[in-house]
Design brief:
This protein has 13 helices and 18 strands. The protein has 441 residues and is α/β, with parallel strands linked by helices.
Length: 441
């Protein structure tokens, strides 16, 4: 069987040259010192000086190479950091070589592979980091579609995208051996962790905490939508700022049950009640807009958070049922309801008014497209169908290939996750209703 010799990389060629240079200097040093001693009768002292000269000539390039290795692997951050950086980059270079991501260089009969420039940056705890790979016209198309996770030695790529100058591809990775999901055995543990978040910030897992905004939560029955909302609601009730919550649930499910305990006056389980709720929110939003006009004179680019104002959140469970019922109403009612919902989505963010829609499938027959597209925080839970991902994130969205359990999913959020990113909602090892009834919230 004919074996094809793998082309050597530029670094290997340099390494072999340095080894040959060291061997040659050693041989020449020994030969010259021996000849000088026998033929010319040079003293032992001068012979030793000659040997030292050849040794320095041989070792100097090696010392220079060692210094360059230390600098390129960031030895200033510690030996452990430098070694992990070296191993990760070396593994990635080997895989890129096998994949043919290199440019062939020649000098006479010698040829070698020049790989793209690569570097990495680890977080202080080595739980996550970033790899940068030099971009080029030749490999741009291939690098954009390449999953480098197999070459990272236990790390998994979460997001990949071009840098602003388009000169490098950036790959954000995390340690696959670490558990994303937070597990709380008691309400006290949950409360302590929630207290570490900002007043207008909610956490999903150990990697993800996000600022309030409009949100879409999609997923089939049993995917963990209601459970995810339970965790959100618990966090909201623990914030130092009062969260005004509104619940719309035509199925009168667990979300309505929680609403009756948290805010019975702003919980609706029928169509007329939901419309009344929307009217109430619209009234509060108009009052907030007048208040914001006065406050923005002090900080023109601010929002409700800058002035410590409480947020208002409408949680709309199984929105598709409401949307279907709305279609049976006359045009005047439909237009009014759509106007109220659109007003929250389009005008509410700066004043702290947000719409959270929960549904199984976010197709245009279930939710108006302009409303769905203006919900910037999107979450799809469970092993959803392709169409669910398309309607939530758009055609061509790159969904991570993972087995999703209940409470697992992917999300997008402006500037944090422009492409679908993995998330795992926490496990709550205590009874939520019991906590409510005990008055701990």
């Amino acid at each position: 069987m004919i074996q094809i010799e793998k082309i050597k990389t530029d670094r290997r060629v340099k390494g072999e040259f340095l080894c040959m240079w060291l061997i040659m200097c050693s041989i020449l040093g020994a030969a010259f010192s021996r000849a000088a001693n026998i033929i010319l009768g040079v003293t032992k002292f001068k012979t030793a000086a000659l040997v030292c000269g050849f040794s320095i000539a041989g070792i100097a390039p090696l010392l220079l190479s060692a210094e360059m290795w230390a600098l390129s692997n960031h030895i200033d951050r510690g030996v452990k950091y430098a070694w992990k950086h070296y191993k990760l980059v070396l593994g990635l270079r080997r895989h890129l070589l096998d994949a043919g991501i290199y440019t062939t260089k020649k000098l006479g009969a010698m040829k070698w592979a020049k790989l793209p420039w690569i570097t990495a940056d680890f977080s202080p705890d080595f739980k996550s980091g970033t790899v940068w790979i030099e971009n080029s016209i030749k490999f741009n198309g291939r690098l954009s579609k390449m999953d480098i996770s197999p070459s990272l030695g236990g790390y998994v790529v979460e997001q990949a995208y071009l840098t602003d100058d388009a000169n490098h591809y950036r790959f954000d990775f995390y340690d696959s051996s670490l558990e994303r999901r937070l597990v709380f055995g008691s309400f006290e543990a949950f409360k302590a962790y929630s207290g570490s978040m900002g007043a207008y910030e909610l956490f999903i897992d150990s990697y993800t905490s996000l600022t309030l905004t409009h949100q879409l939560i999609a997923g089939q029955t049993g995917s963990g939508k209601s459970y995810a909302l339970h965790g959100y609601l618990l966090q909201m009730r623990l914030k130092p700022v009062l969260y005004h919550l509104y619940f719309a649930d035509l199925k009168a499910s667990s979300i309505a049950l929680l609403g009756e305990r948290l805010s019975p006056g702003t919980t609706a389980v029928d169509f007329d009640g939901v419309v009344s709720l929307l009217e109430t929110i619209d009234s509060h939003m108009q009052e907030r807009q007048q208040q914001m006009k006065r406050l923005l004179a002090k900080k023109i680019d601010g929002d409700y958070r800058n002035f410590g104002l409480p947020p208002h959140i409408l949680i709309f469970d199984e929105f598709a049922d409401f949307s279907l019922l709305l279609q049976s109403k006359d045009k005047k009612i439909r237009d009014r309801v759509n106007s109220l919902i659109s007003s929250i989505v389009l005008k509410g963010r700066q004043g702290g008014f947000f719409l959270w829609i929960v549904m199984q499938q976010a197709g245009s027959n279930n939710i108006p497209t302009f409303i769905r597209d203006n919900l910037p925080w999107k979450v799809v839970l469970g092993n959803a169908e392709d169409q669910t991902y398309v309607t939530a994130f758009g055609a061509g969205a790159d969904i991570p290939l993972r087995k999703m359990e209940a409470g697992d999913g992917v999300f997008t959020y402006p500037a944090v996750a422009n492409k679908p990113r993995l998330c795992e909602f926490p496990t709550l090892g205590f009874d939520i209703l019991s906590a409510l009834e005990a008055g701990v919230m």
